[in-house]
Amino acid sequence: MADPVRKIRRALLFPPARHCKPNERQTERRNGFSGMKLLTVKDMVMDFGGLRALNHVDLDVEKGEIVALIGPNGAGKTTFFNCITGIYTPTCGHILLSSDGRHFERINGLKPNQVTRRGMARTFQNIRLFLNMSVLENIMIGRHCRTRSGIFGAIFRPPSTRREEQDVVDVSYEILRKIGLDGAADETAANLPYGDQRRLEIGRAMATDPSLILLDEPAAGMNPQETMELVDLIKRIRSGEGITMLLIEHDMKLVMTLAQRIFVMDYGKMIAEGAPGEIKTNPLVIKAYLGEDAHA
Ligand SMILES: Nc1ncnc2c1ncn2[C@@H]1O[C@H](COP(=O)(O)OP(=O)(O)OP(=O)(O)O)[C@@H](O)[C@H]1O
Ligand SMILES: [Mg+2]
Questions:
Q1: What is the pTM of this model?
Q2: Between the CA of residue 24 and those of 13, 48, 84, what are the distances in Å?
Q3: Tell me: the pLDDT tens digits for 168-208?
Q4: Most buried of 16, 52, 183, 288, CB within 10 angstroms?
């Protein structure tokens, strides 16, 4: 007889996907969930009314990797990030998140702050900073999800609250140093040059103590010098902080330099996955970017 605990665990991890025709669902592949995967997305669909923005998408990220998600404009990349970070609720599919690569939690339906607390932080395609606040305060806000003090602490200010507040400031300065913005701690975020605002958003994500950071077009609008500094920063975050990264990017030079694995999306479907060398020569990818006559 099947072990009842395993049966319940399996039912919790893989409840029947709603709103999808059963024959559209892919078969579960248990071996896809082993190893040191931090994020596993299976069979995800996102419909906006009559528009299917994500069409049975699979993607996984292993601990320590830099993975890129690329595709032409409107392919569904940002929608994918919005679904896995709780901004949208996917129509169906499974999102499994792990902080250690061993224990998974199904995070469908969680709110963005709950997803962040579980170790997945993100930046946005259009920068979303608190522009009227200082650079330091923007980082401190990211740290808030790791604090415990509540209303009682705010009113009576016991030593534990004061210690925690000092810790938030110390950690925030340390992050500013790592992203090279320690000299601008008191500057208003709106006054920072564009490239520094993008780095500040990455710093805010780092402040949440994540195991996985999602970057949505981190190099968009940057000049070549800023892009080079960004590549350097992403490499340092991965090697120095041990943070895994999944990034959306249109700058192919950056993608090919940084990513160990690349997923390619087109019209809501994942059309290819592989190492940079494979992706560069994949006929489906070339067609998606250059059109039908690419081979002519
Ligand atoms: N909230 C929404 N309501 C309706 N349609 C949406 C919504 N968000 C995205 N879409 C549609 O979903 C599709 C995918 O959009 P998405 O922004 O995910 O593309 P993208 O791959 O990030 O493109 P880009 O590279 O230009 O940023 C588009 O057709 C878009 O118009
Ligand atoms: Mg986008």
A1: 0.86
A2: 19, 18, 21
A3: 889 999 999 999 999 999 999 999 999 999 999 999 999 99
A4: 288
What ligand is nearest to the CA atom of residue 266?
1
pLDDT tens for 224-271 read: 999 999 999 999 999 988 899 999 999 999 999 999 999 999 999 999
CA of 252 to the centre of ligand 1 (A): 20
Q: Please, what are the domains in the chain?
A: 4-290 (3.40.50.300)
In 3D space, the residue among 188, 207, 73, 187 whose CA is nearest the CA of residue 142 turns out to be 207
Neighbours of 59 (CB within 10 A): 20
Give, using CA atoms, the residue closest to atom 24 of ligand 1. Answer: 73
Cα separation, 161 vs 154, in Å, equals 8
